[in-house]
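Section 3.1: Structural characterization of target chains.
Under the original work plan, the team committed to producing a structural model for every single-chain target entering the pipeline before any wet-lab resources were allocated. The record below documents one such target. The sequence was received from the expression subgroup and is listed exactly as submitted; it comprises 381 residues.
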Amino acid sequence: MIDLNKRSLIKLTALTAVASAALIGCGKKEEAPAPAAAPAAAPAPAKPEPLKIAFAYVGPVGDGGWTFAHDNGRKAVEAEFGDKVKTSFVESVPESADAERVIRDMAQQGNKLIFGTTFGYMEPMLKVTADFKDVKFEHATGYKTADNMRTYDSRTYEGAYMAGVIAGSMTKSNTVGVVGSIPIPEVIRNINSFTLGAQSVNPKIKTKVVWVNGWFDPPKETEAATSLINGGADVLFQNTDSSAVLQTAEKMGKRAFGWDSDMTAYGPKAHLASAVINWGPYYKKAVGDALNGTWSTGSAWWGVKEGAIDIVSIAADVPEAAKKRIDEVKAGLKDGSFAIWKGPIVGQDGKEVLAKDTVADDKFLGGIKFYVKGVEGKVPQ
């Protein structure tokens, strides 16, 4: 009996062991592998910093003329390039040591493209270029360059000539007047071109000039305009930056032109037309050059052909023949079939300055320091 119980106990123990082993085996279920970690997202490329661009203006932005036109060009750059650029300006910067200080400060503030918008900034800009080789400088109306400074200009004499065509058609006294700014070749060239345009439709034209020796001086411009009218001029032209000449003509019952920008609103009764500059095309090209790495030194001189010069808002009472002639001049300047400075042209002293059929080159135009026949007075030294 005892042996039977032992066998039963042994058998029970064995069965229990087998069952336990089976249960343990069932518990060793293979675990699923952990999912692989997702690859880290690549960091977004850093947005390039905008090109910082600064403009130095000789007059106030609200002058209605020269500086106003440049600032419209700056705004055209912003509209074209958006957040790729960041522009700023300093207005009423004198053509003196102050110009160097302002331009140097612009470079120190991180501007990589700087525009100096008047002739008198040429030497100050040249000084600054030597200390900031990584900055590109653009100088308006000058003739000196450096590895990182180039010059640009507009052919304002084209607008002056077209204004002259209108003046010669509208004057009753055959005497027209010009308020001159500073007697540099650019301004003398404009006075002569205005006279040539007037004489092209009215050979009897005489031109009187009063100089104010400044670009923006409304009181002096008013005084000069008044003097010209009192001297017999019934149509006034200007190479100054404010609207004072047009406003004076309006008050005194005479006619005049806007200059650099459309000045119609300043003297609607006196206004004959405005010879305007559109700086937008050049400024957009210059900024594009800087952004894409193609900027290089040199000189640019743009006119009607490039869309930089035009005459706008021609008065309703200007004869149709004059308007038609303006259209012909524009078309000829665009396609190269017409040249304003083409001989024979005679100087004030009666001597020929351009022989028959000779077309003046840019070197000749850039060095004009004489009056053509029909301009009264002497060129200031």
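The chain has a mean pLDDT of 91.
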